[in-house]
């Protein structure tokens, strides 16, 4: 399992662009792909707003290229806003190994106690249980890149607001 973490600067500009977009999304558009793991939070599909997100998508693609040495094609993009109690059930975005998923943390509570709101990854190919789970307590601007085939979820969130930008890519030429 590969796992990469970057920190993106100037995240406030990205958050503003995304929040301006979601102000204009109708309630019936507040869905994402065929899977919906969010519990008690709101997901906004951004697939129809890609033109406004070009700069951040390019930045994410460059991060992927730098660590995986490959080009990618955008498949799906959405944002999730969660308050106290929001969590994500364990899920994966694809069963295929030629897909890459990304989570960019736009907003996290100023005071968080681990594991509240932390994201976890479960590697079912690990040779023992202690190696099979990776837990990350995110900070604003954290960009996490991982295989779409890895099962993951989040612990219930404590106080405050958490917002993420979530993106799925396919690897070109795979």
Explain what the structure shows.
- It is a single chain.
- The radius of gyration is 15 Å and the shape is globular.
- The longest helix has 15 residues, at 54-68.
- 29% of the residues are buried.
- It has one domain (4-25, 37-171): q2cbj1_9rhob like domain (Jelly Rolls), CATH 2.60.120.
- Strands 1, 2, 3, 4, 5, 6, 7, 8 and 9 form a 9-stranded antiparallel beta sheet that branches.
- It is of the alpha+beta class and 174 residues long.
- It has helices spanning 11-22, 54-68, 129-132, and strands at residues 4-7, 38-45, 72-91, 99-107, 119-122, 133-136, 142-147, 151-154, 162-171.
Write the layout of secondary structure elements.
Blueprint: E1 4-7, H1 11-22, E2 38-45, H2 54-68, E3 72-91, E4 99-107, E5 119-122, H3 129-132, E6 133-136, E7 142-147, E8 151-154, E9 162-171
Antiparallel strand pairs: 1-7, 2-3, 3-8, 3-9, 4-7, 4-9, 5-6, 5-8
Q: Strand count, sense and closure of the main sheet?
A: 9 strands, antiparallel
Mean pLDDT: 87
Helix content: 10-25%
Domain count: 1
Structural class: alpha+beta
CATH architecture: Sandwich
CATH fold topology: Jelly Rolls
Multimer state: single chain
Q: What is the compact description of this entry?
A:
This protein has 174 residues and is of the alpha+beta class. The chain has 3 helices and 9 strands.
List the keywords.
Jelly Rolls, 40% strand, nine-stranded antiparallel β-sheet, globular, 174 residues
């Amino acid at each position: 399992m590969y796992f990469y973490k970057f920190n993106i600067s100037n995240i406030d500009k990205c958050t503003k662009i995304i929040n301006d977009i979601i102000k204009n999304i109708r309630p019936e558009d507040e869905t994402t792909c065929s899977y919906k793991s969010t519990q008690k939070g709101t997901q906004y599909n951004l697939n129809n707003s890609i033109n406004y997100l070009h700069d951040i998508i390019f930045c994410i693609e460059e991060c992927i290229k730098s660590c995986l040495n490959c080009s990618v094609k955008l498949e799906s993009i959405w944002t999730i806003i969660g308050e106290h109690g929001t969590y994500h059930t364990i899920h994966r975005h694809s069963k295929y190994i030629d897909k890459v998923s990304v989570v960019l943390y736009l907003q996290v509570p100023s005071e968080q106690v681990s594991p509240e709101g932390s994201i976890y990854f479960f590697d079912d190919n690990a040779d023992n249980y202690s190696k099979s789970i990776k837990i990350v307590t995110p900070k604003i601007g954290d960009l996490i890149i991982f295989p779409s085939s890895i099962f993951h979820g989040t612990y219930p969130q404590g106080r405050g607001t958490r917002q993420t930008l979530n993106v799925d890519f396919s690897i070109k030429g795979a």
